[in-house]
Amino acid sequence: MSLFHTQKDLSQEVAVECGTQEEAGVPPLRLPNKRPRKGSNVEDSALRLIQEASASLRATPTHEEAFACMAATKLQDMQEGQRLMCEDILYEILTHGVRGKSHPIPTC
Q1: Kind and range of the H or E element at 53?
Q2: Is 83 inside any structural domain?
Q3: Domain presence at residue 106
Q4: Positions of the region Disordered (predicted)?
């Protein structure tokens, strides 16, 4: 018996050995059902947080958010004493607005 086979020899051997799957006693090939990877609760929560953060960053700011950014930028450019005074005034104005008071706030 030779270690080297010709293509013809191999074809004949395969033809003799091969039959139907039932004849060979080989069960039909079944692909395993792949279930989606089950992530941990922490991974799922982290993914949701990243998705929500991405959506927030892509969203157009509301008028209130735009005003808040403008006010914060102006406050950062002020000297400390002036900034503290303006922050106090803004706090009073916002507090009166939340309480539903529309009359003017007394100023210094």
Answers
A1: helix 41-58
A2: yes
A3: yes
A4: 21-41
